[in-house]
Amino acid sequence: MAQYDVIVIGAGPGGYVAAIRCAQLGLKTACVEGRETLGGTCLNVGCIPSKALLHASHSLHEAEHNFEKMGLKVAAPKVDWKQMLAYKDDVIKGNTTGIEFLFKKNKVDWLKGWGSIPAAGKVQVGDTVYETKNIIIASGSEASPVPGADVTVDETVVVTSTGALALPKIPKKMVVIGAGVIGLELGSVYKRLGTEVTVVEFLDNITPGMDGEIQKNFLKLLKKQGLEFVLGAAVQKVEATKTKAKVTYKLRKDDSEHSLDADVVLCATGRRPYTDGLGLEALGVEMSPRGQIKTNGHWQTNVPGIYAIGDAIDGPMLAHKAEDEGMAAAEVIAGKHGHVNYDVIPGVIYTAPEVATVGKTEEQLKAEGRAYKVGKFPFMGNARAKAVFQGEGFVKLLADKETDRVLGCHIIGPGAGDLIHEICVAMEFGASAQDVALTCHAHPTFSEAVREAALACGDGAIHA
Ligand code: FAD
Ligand code: NAI
Got any disulfides in this one, which pairs (predicted)? Predict the structure, then answer.
């Protein structure tokens, strides 16, 4: 029976990163994973496959709408769905086998199978019980059922994101329940592939929690792309046959009942922690009412020697948040000072244009009664964006009115998911809007729009 310093349960972005960092810090480490491949939700059925399909469908859109404008004459593009799925699967494989390579390189043992914790200091996989000084639970999350509605997921006609990433054919009509990140990313994929997409959302706006101005503009852009929205609607039930489904919802404003027919219904109303089979109840590990494993500021549960990270604990369900916690927890176990700054975790929606956000929204600053200023710059004033037909959207920078310290940034536009990191770094260093504005930005880049927004917090943008 092997004796480990650390056994990590789950090889998603939280778990595999934690395992690699533990090994790098000199700890004898194993990682238990029940799936056939490493990488968790993110690499197998989440971030990576969805980005592959977003890329392929965006490329189709470019070919259909922009090639001719640039003098590129090609035959009308056709979609070979089987090949598109094969491309997506290849991308997944490249990434998951990459983690296998990293495990070997860093001498992390992969214990194949589903793990449980019979007692603190022990992890059982199959019939084998391993001894370990520390355990990190990184068991991730699963799709939540649609709240308050009668819906049975079959992953063929009524699907979660997992089914939506591997549909046997491109549906003619799709109803998406939930206008959050999954609904809008995958809704965009199918819209670009020719599906009629209607998004039904409980609230009166999309992407709850985002800056209000971004929500409104994002909704406008998505509508312009042909996605349809029913807002303020509570889904009651989904009735499905083997090939069709009917979604019944009530409008919250007048309680009137309506229905929509679809070939596929995508349920995307959030995810919940997955901790089944770990034996946490018997161990007495404290959980929140929402099923999250409770941890302190050092990712320790109430049971000594058991840590938890990623989607299984509190906080945004994002791969990079899980990764950062994985590194930090490893450092804590190795006697170092692991740290995650939860105030500076970016969020990105990989639609076209992308949406990216970090720090406070204008609504949050108002609620806090904090005096702030806003610097905004539209991508229409950015030469590079216009040249590549991506002049839609804007950068919105929020800074403290007195000190000029950057408090948040919200971007819709080309490369928003990359641009946001300039502001993440600025916020980590406590920079002012003027610090960003006085930093030379190469021309012509999308990044100049961030600088112009920072200039707009002071004496004014140049190109607006
Ligand atoms: P997971 O990635 O869920 O990994 C947990 C792993 O633990 C799984 O492989 C599971 O099999 C394993 N496991 C669980 N229990 C056991 C057990 N008892 N024994 C052995 N193994 C076990 N986030 C982003 O930041 N960017 C994105 O673009 C993005 N896109 C997404 C798209 C979709 C469609 C979805 C569904 C999610 C997306 N996410 C994205 C969210 C992201 O996938 C998660 O936040 C991230 O995967 C969480 O990492 P984790 O390590 O906590 O858990
Ligand atoms: P979400 O929390 O982003 O959005 C769920 C939406 O469903 C909300 O708008 C909510 O108001 C709505 N809703 C809830 N109940 C409803 C009902 N009964 N009827 C209609 N609408 C209802 O959840 P989503 O999109 O499922 O994503 C889950 C998680 O995965 C997110 O927390 C996200 O962090 C992560 N993710 C991240 C991505 C990224 O970073 N690009 C991509 C995809 C997922």
Answer: 42-47
Using the Cα atoms of residue 402, residue 403, residue 406 and residue 411 in order, give the sign of their dihedral.
positive
The question of whether 443 is a catalytic residue gets the answer: yes
What ipTM score was computed for the predicted complex, to two decimals?
A: 0.98
Q: Is it the case that residue 41 has pLDDT exceeding 90?
A: yes
> Measured from the CA of 149, which atom of ligand 2 is nearest?
18
Sheet bearing 347-349, strands edge to edge: 347-349, 354-359, 406-413, 394-400, 372-378
- Sign for the CA dihedral angle at 209, 158, 196, 190 comes to positive
Q: Determine the distance from the C-alpha atom of residue 257 to the mean position of all C-alpha atoms in its chain, rounded to a whole number.
A: 32
pLDDT averaged over every residue in the chain: 97
Q: Is the pLDDT of residue 1 over 90?
A: no
Q: Are 114 and 70 in contact (CB under 8 A)?
A: no
Q: Tell me, using a 6 A CB cutoff, whether residue 184 lines ligand 1.
A: no
* 0.95 exceeded by pTM: yes
Q: Is the CB of 444 under 6 A from ligand 2?
A: no
Helix (H) or strand (E) holding 276: none
**Topology (CATH) of 347-456:** Enolase-like; domain 1 (3.30.390)
**Mind giving me the DSSP string for 205-241?**
SSSTTS-HHHHHHHHHHHHHTT-EEE-SEEEEEEEE-
d(CA 323, CA 18): 7
Tokens representing 462 are 């140049």
Per residue in 100-113, pLDDT tens? 999 999 999 999 99
At residue 323, what is the residue type? E
Nearest ligand to the CA atom of 229: 2
CATH topology of domain 158-269: FAD/NAD(P)-binding domain (3.50.50)
CATH architecture of 3-143+272-333: 3-Layer(bba) Sandwich (3.50)
